Amino acid sequence: MVGACYLDTILRKAPSSPVPQFPAEDAKQRASRLEIRRGGNCPNSLEVLQQLLGPRDAVRTYLVSPLPSESSPATRRIKDSFSLAGESSFTSSSPVNLDLCLYREAYTQAASSYIIRSESTGSRTIVNYNDLPEMTVGEFEAVVRRFGASEDTWWHFEGRIPDTTLECVRALRDQLPNAQISVEVEKPGRDGLRELAAEADVVFYSRSWAEVCGTCDLRRASKAVVVIIGLS
């Protein structure tokens, strides 16, 4: 899976409760619990796959994502979040392979999100911070060259930077023509996502995209298998 990996900092009033309301500007409000956990759409999807795959499934899962220095505490926390039963992920116990991640040795902070969820309105306010250089097409091509053309592979892309991702998808088609490719299309206002979806075999659309664009239009506009997330 190709996408961003975050460390989320979540402010809570109680272990499973949001804060009473979003704070007013220039005001002070107390939170009684702070939770830091690994986030990002692709890492979260890999966590779900860990729960679905059994020890007899001959499936290897990889994350391709820019991360800070491999020796940094932030990267250690991310690696340990994928480990099994609390074992250190520096052993072979983790089914998610992070060897293809792009370690930015000059950086120590991971991409981060600071999240406040309001009990009064149900809103979730997120402030993102990401100082890591994004993956380049050349870096992705080097990752692809580590796989053979005869291997059965499925590559899933988060649609964060459509122009770069589209170049990566086309490079992947050239080097591994038999690879299955899926993309995530989430934000309706982001330019380039329609062109990206047109290149994929499977497209995962968000509920917000389907509500804005219409489910029938999505299926007519794409030759790919269409999956709409969160729409009953």
**Helix proportion range:** 25-40%
Distance between the termini: 26 Å
> What would you call the structural class?
alpha/beta
Principal-axis shape equals: globular
Number of domains: 2
CATH fold-level topology of the largest domain: UDP-N-acetylmuramoyl-L-alanine:D-glutamate ligase
Report Rg: 19 Å
User: In CATH, what is the class of the largest domain?
Assistant: Alpha Beta
- The CATH superfamily of the largest domain bears the name Ribokinase
Task: Report the portion of residues in β strands.
Answer: 15-25%
Mean pLDDT, as a whole number?
Answer: 85
How would you sum up this structure in a few lines?
With 232 residues, the protein is an alpha/beta fold. It has helices at 41-52, 73-81, 137-144, 162-175, 193-198, 207-213, 215-221, and strands at residues 6-12, 33-39, 61-62, 66-68, 96-97, 102-104, 111-117, 124-129, 154-158, 180-185, 202-205, 225-228. It has two domains: 1-18 and 30-132, UDP-N-acetylmuramoyl-L-alanine:D-glutamate ligase; 135-231, Rossmann fold (3-Layer(aba) Sandwich), CATH 3.40.50.
Main attributes?
Rossmann fold, UDP-N-acetylmuramoyl-L-alanine:D-glutamate ligase, 232 residues, four-stranded mixed beta sheet, globular
